[in-house]
Design a protein that fits this description.
alpha/beta; 7-stranded mixed sheet; 2 domains; 6-stranded parallel sheet; Rossmann fold; 11 helices; Quinone Oxidoreductase, Chain A, domain 1; single chain; 336 residues
Amino acid sequence: MRLYRLPRQTGFGDLTLTEADVPGYGRGQVLVRMHAASLNFRDLAVATGKYMMSALPPNLVPLSDGAGEVVEIGDGVTRVKPGDRVAGIFMQGWMGGELEPQHAQTALGGAIDGVLAEYVVFDEQGLVHIPEHLSYEQAATLPCAAVTAWNALYGLHPLQPGQTVLILGTGGVSIFGLQFAHTAGARVIVTSSSDAKLARARAMGASDVINYQANVEWQDAVRDLTGGRGVDHVVEVGGPGTLGRSLRAARNGGVVTLIGVLTRGQIDPLTIFASGAIVRPIYVGSRQMFEAMNRAISLNHLEPVIDRVYAWKKAQQAYHYLKGATHVGKVVIQIG
């Protein structure tokens, strides 16, 4: 079979297409023929040696997010059968409950080999069935970005109809957050530096949009839009450089879910105290969350937003395109 590896973590040029035997499998394990994978900002950090969440194994097979078809199963497997369409969960050991340190050591494409290969062996517990109406390319966008957005909106204080959600940016997590919030009947405010991206966000259901370059004090604009009250949820992907403004945009008792670290800066604890908001850092989500999210996706026939799909041999180009940050939604690689 063919697969990609990162023999070093010094840049996307290290990404190497190579060959290996189809992996063997044992009791409780499942052999999956992968059809598509998607990229996350995390994958850029892994490829360039800037990923700090876990040590990386040598010659890593990258990417956490992929979907494919079960081709063979080991003894004792009951959750899936040959022919099933499945996706791997981001952390293969996190089934439900609170995130524990050992769960992070089972993260695909980081602590362990990922899914940018024609065949991958999973433990049966590390798989979920994908919604019937989705293509493999669409389903490949779900394990990290979609589950992260779902956890942000439903993991602590579940989003209620009529509440207001602030979404920063138009990347993978952000667009899923917009879709989930809009489907739930929430008012959604989206920020971006691009008017073209904001127009697309509005077409997807955003109630209000703010260009943060034209309106530097965008937290004040959010307050104005909410009559001075602030928003109930913030999907915060920027990190220290934007957290202070997100806190000022949130209502007292609102939830600011800290997801990404795309900007630099210092976090002033007094800003957190003054806001009265809950700051909640998250790291993707569990299989239980993934399955709940898939039920909602199926019920509402929600379709992930894919910006661009790359052929198998164009994987390096997919990395470069994601780094350029011109995308809206997800970047996908077809496998094989």
